[in-house]
Amino acid sequence: MAGKEQGFYQVFEVFSRKAPDAPMQHQFSLLAPNEEIALVMAQENFMRREPVADLWVVKRDYIRRMSEDEKAALKRLDNKDYRLTRGYGDLKKRWRKYEQQALDEKEILSWKGEIQR
Predict the structure, then answer these.
(1) 4-14 tens-digit pLDDT
(2) Residue 48 domain-assigned?
(3) pLDDT value at position 116?
(4) CA of 12: how far to CAs of 42, 65, 67, 100, in Å?
(5) CA distances from 89 to 37, 64, 81, 94 (A)
(6) Residue 26 domain boundaries
(7) Residue 22 belongs to domain with CATH number
(8) Confidence tier at 97 by pLDDT (50, 70, 90)
(9) Smallest Cα–Cα separation from 55: which of 35, 32, 39?
(10) Which of 9, 23, 75, 99 lies 20 to 30 Å from 41 when distance is taken between CA atoms?
(11) Contact 23, 16 (CB under 8 A)
(12) 61 in a structural domain
């Protein structure tokens, strides 16, 4: 079915969001003769299960996919790992270790006598 019509029926993709500020999510695909019937089928099959703030029904042929060349362009050309946040997962542990090694006020004041000698 990959984007082709199946005789009388066409493939539609159904998207919905649960709240007005929620992201749109793909729910399922369905076969229908036209957009109006596809919308009715989506409402009947989906909206009776859970509340929906918005429902989109899109003919699969209208959705453009990236070509393999376009996908290849998405790969990083240079090393920008420093921009990724995964390196900060142990920051709390490292900070605690640093604090334990830091000098406290009492220790610094205890040096007073040794420095004057």
Answers:
(1) 445 899 999 99
(2) yes
(3) 55
(4) 9, 15, 21, 60
(5) 50, 37, 14, 10
(6) 10-67
(7) 3.10.20.520
(8) confident
(9) 39
(10) 23
(11) no
(12) yes
